[in-house]
């Protein structure tokens, strides 16, 4: 349920930028002969000509809609060009569109905080940029206004007037405007400049909404498409919302919106104004009630997140009509393909952006034989994500079996799957300091764990010994930054051989109470390998992806199928670490968030160093994992709910 966020004291300038018929534009850039032509991008599945997923504005003029299939689109518009999405692994490959979206994001992010909301949508917080413009170069002459800004649609101004452009120019540099409108005018000019840059540098057009909050900016960005922008001055908010159907509002498209219609008779956002905050709270709870009361007045405190990367990675495939999957072998075949793609994407996210995904989720659309109208849905299932293609494949299949078991409720009946998808979510940045934990746990003991690449990939140069060798090609990225290298203080996990005597002295002086290295050594030399062995023998290693499994993953990817066997057999698990026998560690480098990710035995010890010991919560500490009836007790990922069990 939606919750009201506190609004900032100062007015903000927020933009929502949405690319026009995005996939079509990407295809038109690839093949300029398609420019200006009725064109649509169709799904890989060619059933009835393939489902349309993007339609050019020229084709829309003929009545072609996204809900159509290729055959129908051809009937409506015989001249339409149908372009199939690129294909890989027997399904759509969206990488082309993703990277085209990234090109646009890179330009938009130059002017303020930028949140990538989808493959072709971005929120921008332009407050600072607008304030700066107002201070340094405010728009003061109508003639100087950029043509693209002069074409803005400003809610509340006459939109069909023959002199619209003149009116807009005057509005954008009104000397008597209040400070909110002045900021908004600057925001509109900045967005127009950005859109011009996007067009020049990528050949793509986009549309935008500019308002004082995200909610309003998003609501109007698609109001005038293609290649236009719409501005919402505060004075026009009430009129705009008065006639806005409730279902158009984000978060009101589903059950909450239906309840507003059915239970309160609310059809437009404006209708909400007749209810007191108390009444709405009574009906929908305190938080949602307040949220509804506020959105009715155009108030929303939601912030633009500083995020240029997607929140999750998903790979899916539909199997319409006769293509539906009806046996486990075909499901496994497709899941393997989807998981392979997912694995590649999360691995590349890890390598390029140092981000780790924590949760694997499987969704499916399934119907029982002879019960096609049944309302029972296949339950989505999740488990901790283990890096490495075969592990993801294995877990996804188990999730599917578990979901199918729940779905069928012990009935021995046939089933049919029309869509399958796997998602990697709960993605977080590896916090600064994690690399030191990684090194600390894994770095030096290349022989101690299967997660470490074999010695051939470990350079002899001791100065490079601190690196985390995710993959050979990734060495550079994982190397500590120059500043880290130059800064003598930041030298976590340096073997005693490398650590100068002075530095060792400094640490022991600074942290005289840090005496816990022996158990770490124990852990490194045998504890972890024993734990690893135990989990392997338990049948499911619930390892934390940020520690061992990301490394394992790389290896698995690297060695492919043959190496997977080697990976499973983990022949060198029990070997003693070689080459180093003592460890120095700068406690200041430890990020508390990272400590939570460590195995309990190490966690307890490190927590003792970095903060005064708490009264132990024995219950939690003694048994951090969720005990499952099967043996999948996950003590590294105890916060996750494991649907495999
Ligand atoms: N997309 C898809 N499947 C859908 C909807 C969209 O694969 N069911 C893809 C194709 C679109 C892109 O996502 O080009 C962006 O979707 P939008 O909803 O933003 O639509 P468009 O950008 O195509 O058109 P518009 O100009 O109306 O925003």
UniProtKB/TrEMBL annotation:
Protein's UniProt name: DNA polymerase eta
Catalytic activity: DNA(n) + a 2'-deoxyribonucleoside 5'-triphosphate = DNA(n+1) + diphosphate
Region (Disordered) residue spans: 446-466
One BP term from GO: UV protection
Domain UmuC: 14-253
GO cellular component, one term: nucleus
Family assignment from sequence similarity: Belongs to the DNA polymerase type-Y family.
